[in-house]
Amino acid sequence: MSFTYSADTVEIVEKEEIADMNFGPADVLPTEADRQRRRADADRPVTLGNTYHGKLDIYFQTTDGATKRVGTTI
Hints:
Layout lengths: L9 E3 L19 H17 L6 E7 L5 E7 L1
Parallel strand pairs: 1-3
Antiparallel strand pairs: 2-3
């Protein structure tokens, strides 16, 4: 699972803005393998606990089809 986004197509948003966005029912990842990989990637910080903190970008798509990016620390 890899993503390549042009800076022109991705809007950077703040974490606080996510609650006001709308998301469709369809998953943006096309295969079950991609969805399982996403789950494993999302669960990894829980396993690492407080011993590791790193920054990451989360890409997502809203119901209007716009791709957005939010940065966070895990």
